[in-house]
Amino acid sequence: MAWGSQSFATFLILCPTSFFLGVLFSLFPYDYPILWTAAPSRPEAFFALENHLLTLHASPPLIPRILHIVIATGLLGFLFKLYKPSESNMLFDGASLVLYMIGIIVYVTNIVKGLRVVSSGDYGKAELVEGEVIMGAKAGVDTEGQEGIGREDSLRVLSASHTILALVLVGVLVLQAGQWYAERKERQELEKMSKDKAEKGKGPVGARAQVEKKKKF
User: Fold this and answer.
1) With helix as H, strand as E and coil as C, how does 154-194 read?
2) pLDDT for 100-134, tens place per residue?
3) How many alpha carbons fall within 13 Å on the CB side of residue 135?
4) Which residues, including other chains, have CB under 8 Å from residue 129's CB and lie 6 or more apart?
5) Host H or E run for residue 127
6) Contacts by residues 22-27 (CB-CB < 8 Å, ≥ 24 positions apart)
7) Residue 126, CB half-sphere, CA atoms under 13 Å: how many?
8) Orientation of helix 3-35 relative to helix 94-106, angle to 10°
9) Which residues pair with 127 in a beta bridge?
10) Interatomic CA distance for residues 186 and 191, integer angstroms
């Protein structure tokens, strides 16, 4: 693939990744008091995170559509870069795609389901989302009176999922930066080899020309 098209494909990967990191950074003030402080989490911190998540889940349909378009844009960038891939593409872009897919899985399995649970307020209930129940309910076991994961633990899981997703996305950026550096060094080495080869080719010709010039005199 040509260098210009590779640059455009890299742009399609970096923009969605950076966008999602920005979204996760906006959640950090809510996650910090719950996960990253040594002191016990105050009830106000859980209320603040819960209210923020309720606002997010109640967003107009346009907001999740834009989010999913941005996700698809990143996948499109990977498809462009992995079309007729080089060794560098297979190594760096393949690993980046694996991390990107892990991020999508975390988003779908933890964050989306967590938002639905927070929105419904059914913490610790057997039924999680439409058509899905916990194992005890599937097996016909009476789950009444059994405590599932509570409200505070559910919010902690969501905060931890935000952190996991941020680490995965940072990994994508690191791999793309590593690919850029490796390809830059490779181009420099090729240019140096080409320059050395050209100088070696000129050497005998120049020496022969000087000998012929001396013979004329």
Assistant:
1) HHHHHHHHHHHHHHHHHHHHHHHHHHHHHHHHHHHHHHHHH
2) 999 999 999 999 999 999 988 888 764 444 444 44
3) 0
4) 113, 116
5) strand 127-129
6) 24/162, 24/165, 24/166, 24/169, 25/166, 27/52, 27/159, 27/162
7) 13
8) 40
9) 133
10) 9
User: For the segment 46-56, what is each residue's pLDDT rounded down to a tens digit?
Assistant: 999 999 999 99
CB atoms within 10 A of CB 26: 10
The first and second tokens of residue 83, run together, are 């079309």
| Residue indicated by tokens 């996991």 | 164
Q: Tell me: the pLDDT tens digits for 31-85?
A: 999 988 888 888 899 999 999 999 999 999 999 999 999 999 999 999 988 887 7
Q: Tokens standing for 63?
A: 């907001």
Two tokens at 183? 């390809």
Instruction: Tell me the C-alpha distance between 7 and 183, whole Å.
Output: 12
Query: Cα–Cα distance between 121 and 116 in angstroms, integer?
Result: 8
Residue showing tokens 């938002």 = 115
For 46, list phi and psi in degrees, rounded to 5.
-65, -40
